């Protein structure tokens, strides 16, 4: 299957040279001093097993890639393990084109759900997942991958939110046709942000609780690791605590707030 979307071409990758190019692309994005996020050999095995391995091309240049593997048959789900876009292509909807292709691929195989994880501190990814794709964040996973020493994770703890993307739902279909889910930052502040960019604990009472995240956690990790760690623990305590108590994230406001609805309040 080949998808032409947002000025890039997305297609499945099978040629070893393209799989090696995917490894190199991921290396350039994560810039890990140890092992790469994936290897061409692993990708070769995944393609042979029928997994999802797709690349986005701008002309002849590979500018993005996404890989996933299937859950047990009864689950009817695909787990999207890793996706990345070349730095120079940000803002051109390459990631969106990859997810649209992934949704089509999964629907054609009778699947109903795609799952993946993302760092809850990364504001642009929170909006992309919850707003632009219309997906749901269902579980908070503390230090899910352990410490990862690369340019993106900065060697810190790897808390993640688990995403459930119900690909056949009307809400997701609407988001994938260009009508993102919207959220309004109205409610009590469970975690705010100070004028100097640090987390400020609030109160988690009322039916709707707002949880802030920093404007640019990746820059903060490089310039002020202590502040980045403070955000990690604050969001873990407040957002993770709310989800553990049965609350649900209903959206993400683009100004930087998770909107959380508490059950039974």
Largest sheet: 8 strands, mixed
Mean pLDDT: 92
Helical segment count: 7
Residues in β-strands, percent: 25-35%
Helix percent reads 25-40%
Numbering strands along the chain, what is their spatial order in the largest sheet? 1-2-3-4-5-6-8-7
Number of strands: 13
Shape, per Cα inertia axes: globular
Give the terminus-to-terminus CA distance: 47 Å
Instruction: Note poorly predicted spans.
Output: none
CATH topology of the largest domain: Aminopeptidase
Structural class determined from secondary elements = alpha+beta
In the CATH hierarchy, the architecture of the largest domain is: 3-Layer(aba) Sandwich
What name goes with the CATH superfamily of the largest domain?
Answer: Gcn5-related N-acetyltransferase (GNAT)
How many domain regions?
2
| CATH level 1 name of the largest domain | Alpha Beta
InterPro entries: Acyl_CoA_acyltransferase (IPR016181), GNAT_N_AcTrfase_prd (IPR038764)
Protein name: GNAT superfamily acetyltransferase
Organism: Lentzea pudingi
